[in-house]
Amino acid sequence: MVLRLGSPRRRINFGLIGMTFVLSIFAGRLIQMQGLDSKVYEAAAADQRQHTETIPAKRGSITDVNGHDLAVTVEAREVSVDPTKVPAAVRPKIAKILAQQLGKDEQEINAKLAKTGTHYQLLARDVDPVVATRLLQARELPALSAKKTYKRLYPAGDLAGSLIGFVGDEGNGLGGMEQAKNSLLAGRDGEQRVETGRDGQRIPMTSSQRTAPVDGQDVRLTIDRDIQWAAQKSIAEEVRKSEADSGTVIVMDVQTAQIIAMANAPELDLNNWRKAPESRYINKAAADVFEPGSTNKVITAAAALEARVVTPDTVYQVPDSIKCYDQVLRDAHAHKVEALTFRQAMAQSSNVATVMAARKVGSQKLYEMLKAFGFGTAPGGGVPGAEAGLLPDYRKWSGSQSCTVAYGQGVSVTALQMASVYQTIANGGVKIEPQIVAGTTDASGRFVPAAPGKQTRVVSETTAKEIATMLESAVGEEGTGQLAAIDGYRVAGKTGTANRYDAELGRYDGYTASFVGFAPADKPRLVVLSVLQNPKKGHFGGQLAAPVFKDVMTFAIKSKKIPPTGSAAPTVRTRAGQ
What we know:
Helices cover about 35% and strands about 20% of the residues.
């Protein structure tokens, strides 16, 4: 049998038909890609080439009232590397150089260089631009990149550290004013869209779209740097000497309620905040709650004088103890029954006489006066982290609490709240919302002063003046605050020594020692409050806190150039029978 091959022409025709079919498919696909779907592929290609880069805004500064920098932003660099371009043989050498220049761990750098599955590894943030430039120009260091950023600096270190707060790696405020005013300080980042090749390098001559960043605004505080320094120094020394857990000082302007100093000890060093215990992140002057003790007696006095159930010259027969329901309450020192004027009882800080006056006022009116002075309510004015303290409703007071509240036990406040009480007395009975921000800059850089604090009359001017004279007696020869006296100036103030409630132990343990007052007593300009928590060497406010008051007030009135009034303290009846 003979096999015959098909006609060559037929095979060629079949081949041409097949080729035509295949080519028609390619042609159709080409028409689809270049015609119908061209825009889709063009956009996809553009997306592969185009990248959006963030242009960081420069964070605004925080300054003291005189414009001295407390927190500033300076230019920096983020240094990164493409590990795929670093040969394995030279990694140890390059890691050693980079670790030395960037202040990083050599093993950490070496591990990042070994990650050859990626084109990007961040090596360090906040690098000095000079250092970054030197690294980029070094021949032995291939594949490095540097991105312009900013870093936060705190020129004053721990000055008002917990009040100012700090900024995290992402550029957001994480505490204090940095957090409270973050949106204002941070500004708004810009962005830029650029075209890059496969190696991540920008393609020359290609177009880019840029939205400019809006820099943050500056915030000017009411804090005076020099007075803040003096306050921190004085309270830190007393904390060390008395072996206290902590201490606080507040300096406040009487007429505006602007906070001139807000010091804590120990304080937070802002340049090393990551290494500090978290307890130092808290601004204790505004957030630490404690029972005030005898500094609270001015409120009882105010309630009694406003209700007209006593006068400064009302005479009490005062024993050294008084029964209140199931409790016996005592004065700090044992004594026989004494005839004391109300003024003298305040000067000598008699718990018993204060309870006797409070009983004439009644729990409801005393509670209302405490509320009027700001107890139980967080103060406004923008102080970050300010707490409300604890003021139980008078209808829930225990039997003994109805007496102890009169002399500052059974009610809790912050140092800021107590300083505000004495600002109210010194200001003729008008309470002003405490202020911490003096003003800000607008978009044009123009300073815009902050609105003044809300004013509220709490007691009459007559009552305020009567209390001021009583407080001046408390710093006199018969008072408990003699160590607060300042030569040449009339000083009014009150000591406080309270049992301290320890939340961790769940019971009272140790003491809170305090002193708060104002000067000049007859024309008040400044309030200073000092508090020491759980001192181990001594515990009376007149012994520990009064000298701090004197140091800080003396420095502040000299710094502010406040002259003595030149007037003498009025002659008042301090003893019964005079």
